[in-house]
Amino acid sequence: MIDNRLEYLRMYETERKLWWYQILHGKVLSQIRKHFRAMDPDLKILDAACGTGGLMSFLKENGYSNLRGFDYSQHAIDFSNERGLNVVFGDLRNVDAFEPGETFDIITCNDALYFLTDEEIVRALTAFRNRLNRNGLIIINIHAFEAFSGTHDLAVGSSRRFKLEQFQAFGKAAGLRIGYTTYWPFALSLPILLVRQWQNYQIRKKKINVDHLDSDVEYPGDALNAVLKTITKAESAILGKAPFGSSLFMTFQPA
Fold it and tell me: Which position has the higher pLDDT, 23 or 156?
């Protein structure tokens, strides 16, 4: 996805209103407020591999002003800068090179670590731990379960998906302990799974050109978007955490 400007444009245009991004951003905010309890607008927040800056904009609108981000893609940086955000070049494979010596209260990294090998993930998590202030929090969302792979994964360059057990091992190796975890969305996992399996069937039958793929991230219209958001919010409120879904959401703290 790094060189795919069209995918970044699609993200830029949809991530502030698409139900999936709204739920994810809400989960991040909820964990920040739960962990730090009192609202502190000066908390230092780093969004690592921040994409086009949707989460940073959301946090800014919710009172957090001390925000920084980095991304490997110039397209992502350009779109983030258009939002007036402090985003520069950075590499998850070399987190230490970003603002050396600076530490943060919160580090977020959503849907980006899949680019890395296991060893690189451990190094990135270790670097996050070393850049945390006392009582700091790491928040990560990542693609889950290979069964959910489809055209979206190919379009964004995702070569694999994960299970919680893998990140438990990564975290332990990086000197971190996992706090809150949940797979999501649970209630919508069956229709998502069916769509992705149908995509894979079409790919196998060569009815889809894998050399010219777009992801399935698109705005479904106000009515359907509202329904999907309501279902997923209700699921989160009722279940707290779920055992299955296309994404895995986690918080980490130093062990």
Answer: 23
